[in-house]
Amino acid sequence: MTNQTASQARSHNGTRSNPLRDPRDRRLNRIAGPSALVMFGVTGDLARKKLLPAIYDLANRGLLPPSFSLVGVGRRPWSHDDFAAEVLAHVKASARTAFDEQVWEQLSAGLRFVPANGFDDDEAYSALKSTLTELEASRGTRGNHAFYLSIPPNSFDTVCQKLSSHGLARREDPDADDAEQPSWNRVVIEKPFGHDLESARELNTVVESVFTPDEVFRIDHYLG
Q: Which pTM was predicted?
């Protein structure tokens, strides 16, 4: 782990940081604030067996706010209800905590799905932007977005550039006069990425051409 990655992974008091948490938030360090998590590759094996059940476990432990929302992006022609049914099946099969109907009802209310014909599908990014706008109005996510790239590293460039061109990676200026509580963006990528040091640096450059270094979280899912 590089010094940069280590500093991002830990807060000032040495505890693990939460990529969904605004550093200005003075509540308990591990509790996420209002936000939407957008998961690319949500129909993949890792998401189905690990990531989706883990999100439920966080909700069940009280570590996600009532307004938390999850947007899946994938190739399936699913509706929001279809996606919720898929998530429920994987939660019941693989979650580490006991199933609680009330927790599930609260979590499922914030589930959305955006079908995409590929990572370069402009219509999908337009639909994603509309979905995030709807969630901000209906769920109070406050424009806070984390993009989880559970996808092959060679697709990082396409996704990051599309997020940028569709205005999804834009952030508010924290120094602006009307920015009392500016929104934030995060991007979460899985390690290891790249086949050697040079390719890893190239991928890093790609991601940081759209997101600032402090917005990038690198996670080794094997340590989860």
A: 0.82
